[in-house]
Amino acid sequence: MKGGKSKTETRSSKLSVAKKPAKAAGRGKAAAKDPNKPKRPASAFFVFMEDFRQTYKKDHPNNKSVAAVGKAGGEKWKSLSDAEKAPFVAKADKRKVEYEKTMKAYNKKLEEGPKEDEEESDKSVSEVNDEDDADDGSDEEEDDD
Known about the structure:
It is built from 6 helices and no strands. The chain is mainly α.
């Protein structure tokens, strides 16, 4: 070789770069989400976007781009004065108050704990149905057409 690095030397220098671990591997296991938990209220901007999307679709019926609607909505929101934003802020505040009430009720329900009739068995519904079919007592075969 004419004074250059050999293939093994260049490979080892390339492979010596430490890779970052995946994000999920660094975190602990996430808590299971409760489907009964109330959703957080929309901000004033998202309340504005609900109305803006409808008017934008009327003005631009051929537009299929979600990004274009979002970009136009963001620009419009920035151009609004505080007085023009006030009704959307009021709606967002009203939703926030309602959310806080439902969260208090939800947390109170959690503190009380599950009721006896709400507890579910370890068996899935399909397993229970399979057992019911087996204990049916009838010797008829199902007709699978």
